[in-house]
Structures are given as structure tokens and as C-alpha cells.
Description:
Blueprint: E1 2-7, H1 13-24, E2 27-29, H2 39-44, H3 46-70, E3 75-78, H4 81-94, H5 100-116, E4 122-127, H6 130-140, H7 150-165, E5 171-176, H8 186-203
Parallel strand pairs: 1-3, 1-4, 2-3, 4-5
Helix pairs in contact: 3-4, 3-5, 4-5, 4-7
Amino acid sequence: MHVAIAGNIGSGKTTLTTKLSKHYKWKPHFEDVENNPYLNDFYKEMQRWSFNLQVYFLNSRFRQIIDIKKEDKNFIQDRTIYEDAYIFAPNLHSMGLMSSRDFENYKELFNLMDSLVEGPDLLIYLRASVPTLVSQIQKRGRDYENSIRLDYLTQLNDRYEAWISEYDKGRLLIIDVDDINFSENEEDLGSIIQKIDAEINGLF
């Protein structure tokens, strides 16, 4: 089984991936943030590094999906290949931070990869307001995230909502994280697990 967690920067994807992988004994696949050679440069000079960054993420997530399909295990994935293609890359293009030439090249690459893989069995979308995202980003204190602008987060949120409203790759569970604290509150985590159990039971 392949479960994936989607959500904007600071929505809690990595924390929930970690907790669910422990609870269900699922093998986690995390977003390659620490080893990403473009991330620091991107936040300093978005226009110069946007294409490089997005291709790196696309390749990384495609490899994850290939690995997931090879092994006969249950996996949980921190962020999906679709978020790069439907949210981050088009947002950079619309902001003038990725050229049309690069964006078309990127889309063709994604479409080829997308034709070769299937969506996750269950997608968990963490919905969060911009104030919640800002609070979470500040709490974790990553240097390269200090320069993220509010309008950038807002545009990403709008694109997430548009994408989720048309999502058709498999089962979808939406969790509103504004009023819960699953990272510290066991009851909040338990309520999420109950919802996931119900979705998983529906798969079989």
C-alpha cells in the first residue's frame, strides 16, 4: 500500500509522516530537503535556480515512486510528485520566476513520468491557513525559510485548494490542521488515525 501526505510548506507533513510510519509500521519516504543542493540558492535567487530546484524534486520523487512499486511493502510518502507539477512549478512560472521555455520543458518531463506511475492508494491532504503555516515555519527555524514571503504562501495555498478540488488519482482524506495539534496532542493524532483506518478499510 502507498499512502502519501500532501500540504503546503509548514503544514506538518514530515511530522505526520513520522508519527504514522511508527504507528502503522509503514516505511517512510521523506522529502530530500537536507541533501538538496539547490534549496539555499533558490531562496536567495529564485529566478536563477527555480528550474534546477524543481527538476531535482521531480527526479527525487519519481525515484521514490519507482522504489515504492519495486518493494512489496507498505509505504508513506512525505509530499507527492503532483505538488511539484500542479502547484510549485506553475506558481514560479506565474510569478515570473521560471521562464516559459523552462516551464514547458518541465511539464513535458512530468507528463512522461506521470504516464509511467500510478497515484497513491490514499492521499492525505493537510489543509492549513497562512497564519498556521507561518507559525509552524517560524517554530522549526530553518534559515533558508526565513525569507519566504506571505504572498508566496498564499498563492501556494490557493493552488493547493484548486488541485485538491479536482484530485482523482485515488482515495482522498482532507485534514484541517488549524484547530488541532497532532505533533503534541495524542487525542488529535488518534482522531486522524481513526479517519485513516476508515479509509484503509475502504480500500480492501
